[in-house]
Amino acid sequence: MSIVTNILINHSSLEGAVFKEAVDLALVCAAFDQQVNLIFLDAGINNLITGQSASILNDKNHVDIIKGLEFYDIDNVYLEKESLDKTCLKTEDLLPSVQLKNTAEINKLNLKANHLVVF
């Protein structure tokens, strides 16, 4: 039986090191053969907007980091539909690999998870 860890990201990378810490945790969990579900909601969806420049953060482009997660067997990247609906963003503005889920579907994922970490 696989251990499932859900990592909820509800902060933008502009709000400090929270995004980087969430990704670091995801990588550690994946290294120990855990299934990782990254779930973006609220301000966290800003991390998924394509065409952003990382120069303002003096860091790596977080969109590229998310794209690279598949090499660590982190394939489940979700976006809460209701959070998207609160913005003027469209799915075309975001990474195409992100899967849209409504709040009820995310709640089901959270109930099935062994660990739930909120950033």
Give the C-alpha Rg: 13 Å
Work out the helicity level.
Answer: 25-40%
Order of helices and strands: EHEHEHEHE
The CATH topology comes to: Hypothetical Protein Ychn, Chain: A
Discrete helix count: 4
Q: Looking at the structure, what is the overall shape? A: globular
How many structural units, i.e. domains?
A: 1
**If classified by CATH, what would the architecture be?**
3-Layer(aba) Sandwich
The parts where pLDDT drops under 50 for at least 5 residues are: none
How many beta strands in the DSSP annotation? 5
Largest sheet: 5 strands, parallel
Give the oligomer, counting copies of the same chain as homo and different chains as hetero.
single chain
Question: What is the CATH H-level superfamily?
Answer: DsrEFH-like
Q: What is the terminal-to-terminal distance?
A: 26 Å
Neighbour order of strands in the largest sheet: 4-3-2-1-5
How confident overall, as mean pLDDT?
89
Helix vs. strand class = alpha/beta
The top-level CATH class is Alpha Beta
Give the strand content. Answer: 15-25%
Describe this structure in words.
- By secondary structure, this protein is α/β, with parallel strands linked by helices.
- The protein has one domain: Hypothetical Protein Ychn, Chain: A.
- The chain has four helices and five strands; from the N terminus they run E-H-E-H-E-H-E-H-E.
- Strand 1 (4-9), helix 1 (18-31) and strand 2 (35-40) form a beta-alpha-beta unit.
- The radius of gyration is 13 Å and the shape is globular.
